[in-house]
Amino acid sequence: MSETHDQKSQEDRVTIIVPTFCKIAMEIHRQNMWEKGYRLESNVKQHTFWEGDGKETKTLFSGEQMYAATFVKN
């Protein structure tokens, strides 16, 4: 059976955003992500984050690239 949009929206997602790759590892262990039943959804990579309200868009974290790790729990 293939997943539908509704099934995917039922997954619990958590994204940890930190300034360095080393801090991702520290946060994963500090937050006990594996023990809580989460799995890493994709590779940990640097991102530039933006926020928009439909009218304006602005950068987050002063435009600095941050590392993001997204975890999912079904």
Question: Any overview of this molecule?
Answer:
The radius of gyration is 15 Å and the shape is flat. It is α+β, with helices and mostly antiparallel strands and 74 residues long. The protein has helices at residues 5-9, 21-30, and strands spanning 12-18, 39-40, 45-47, 50-52, 57-59, 66-73. It is 20% helix and 35% strand. The strands form two sheets. Strands 1, 2, 3 and 6 form a four-stranded antiparallel β-sheet that branches. A two-stranded antiparallel sheet has the order 4-5. The mean pLDDT is 87. The longest helix is centred in the middle third of the chain and has 10 residues, at 21-30. Strand 4 and strand 5 (57-59) form a beta hairpin. It has one domain (11-73). The two termini are 16 Å apart.
What is the topological layout?
Blueprint: H1 5-9, E1 12-18, H2 21-30, E2 39-40, E3 45-47, E4 50-52, E5 57-59, E6 66-73
Antiparallel strand pairs: 1-6, 2-6, 3-6, 4-5
Beta fraction = 35-45%
> What is the count of distinct domains?
1
User: In angstroms, what is the radius of gyration?
Assistant: 15 Å
Shape: flat
| SSE series | HEHEEEEE
Relative helix content: 10-25%
Going by helix content, strand content and strand pairing, the class is: alpha+beta
Tally of alpha and pi helices: 2
- Biggest sheet layout: 4 strands, antiparallel
- Amino- and carboxy-terminal Cα gap: 16 Å
Give the mean pLDDT.
87
- Stretches where pLDDT is under 50 for at least 5 consecutive residues are none
The number of strands is 6
